[in-house]
Structures are given as C-alpha cells and as structure tokens.
C-alpha cells in the first residue's frame, strides 16, 4: 500500500474548497445569462454544475497524485457528485444535484449508525484517523455526528424545496461549510477530554 504523502495546508484547502468556490462563481456568472445548446436553454445552475463536476474530478485526481490517498468521505462525495451532477446536466434539471447533499448526509448517518450498532469504529475510517482519541470519545462523537448529519439532510431538503436557486447555492457554499466547522469547533471539550495525548499526559 502506497504511503500517504503530506502537502501544505493551503494547497489542501485549495483542492478541497476550490471546486465549490468555482461552482459559486460560475452560478452567479451564468445566473442571468442562459445558454442555448442543442435546442435547449441551460440556466445558471446547470451550467455551474457542468463546470463544477470536471473541476472536482480534476481536484480529487490532483489530491490523489500529490498524496497517494483519498479519504472514504472524499470518494463517496466524488461518486455522488459525478452521478447526480451528471443527471442534472443530462436532463437539464437542477433537482438531481440539489438532492446530492441530502443523500450523502443520510448515507454517512446510516453508515455511522450501522457502525455503532456493530460496535465498529467506522468514524475513524471516515475521518481518516485524523483525530487521536480514546474509544469512548469516538463513540460519543459518532452519535453526535449521526444526529448532525440527519439535521443537515433535513435542512438541505427544506431549503432546496422551498427557496430559490440563489438561496440554495449560498447555503451550499457557505452555510454547510460554516455549520460543519461550527460543529467540530463545538467538540473541542470532547477532543480535550478523550484525546490520546491528553490521556497520556494525565498518566
């Protein structure tokens, strides 16, 4: 198995969040300028999706080439983006792509919940073992993430079904990112209490 290589935090952030920012910019560039192709009119959302999908594929390919590794969450996200983004482009229907966050969060919640039932620490695989914690900490974090992912799935459904494309794009680009960052920031006491390094220091 190839050894994972480290890259700079700035480069990793650019590869992780760059495609999403490209989608955001493309949407607002094309929002009021639909394009006629093969007898159909493609609006800003579908055009932005058509830009986003290959950019994300290129970004993940670059990340894999540079590090020799992709996390399970990244692979699952990539597959769903290609499938549902492709459906939105093929059928000229934004709804497929808008459903993608709902499905991926439900998938993660289901897998983590199944892991809890089996008493398997699958969260360590999903998070790529980035946080050194005791088993009890992983169990608590997993339970919280299951609830949080279900909340995100419901929030995405409510927003895409009841609000405009512009509202959803802002929610997808900034809202979900802020919520995810806020969730993990709120877990600081958990990481401090169950962190392996802290546990060793106490001993």
Automatic annotation (TrEMBL):
<feature type="transmembrane region" description="Helical">
    <location>
        <begin position="138"/>
        <end position="155"/>
    </location>
</feature>
<feature type="transmembrane region" description="Helical">
    <location>
        <begin position="102"/>
        <end position="118"/>
    </location>
</feature>
<keyword id="KW-0997">Cell inner membrane</keyword>
<dbReference type="Pfam" id="PF04279">
    <property type="entry name" value="IspA"/>
</dbReference>
<dbReference type="GO" id="GO:0005886">
    <property type="term" value="C:plasma membrane"/>
</dbReference>
<keyword id="KW-1003">Cell membrane</keyword>
<keyword id="KW-1133">Transmembrane helix</keyword>
<feature type="transmembrane region" description="Helical">
    <location>
        <begin position="71"/>
        <end position="90"/>
    </location>
</feature>
<protein>
    <recommendedName>
        <fullName>Inner membrane-spanning protein YciB</fullName>
    </recommendedName>
</protein>
<comment type="similarity">
    <text>Belongs to the YciB family.</text>
</comment>
<keyword id="KW-0472">Membrane</keyword>
<feature type="transmembrane region" description="Helical">
    <location>
        <begin position="42"/>
        <end position="65"/>
    </location>
</feature>
<feature type="transmembrane region" description="Helical">
    <location>
        <begin position="13"/>
        <end position="30"/>
    </location>
</feature>
<keyword id="KW-0812">Transmembrane</keyword>
<dbReference type="InterPro" id="IPR006008">
    <property type="entry name" value="YciB"/>
</dbReference>
<feature type="transmembrane region" description="Helical">
    <location>
        <begin position="167"/>
        <end position="186"/>
    </location>
</feature>
<comment type="function">
    <text>Plays a role in cell envelope biogenesis, maintenance of cell envelope integrity and membrane homeostasis.</text>
</comment>
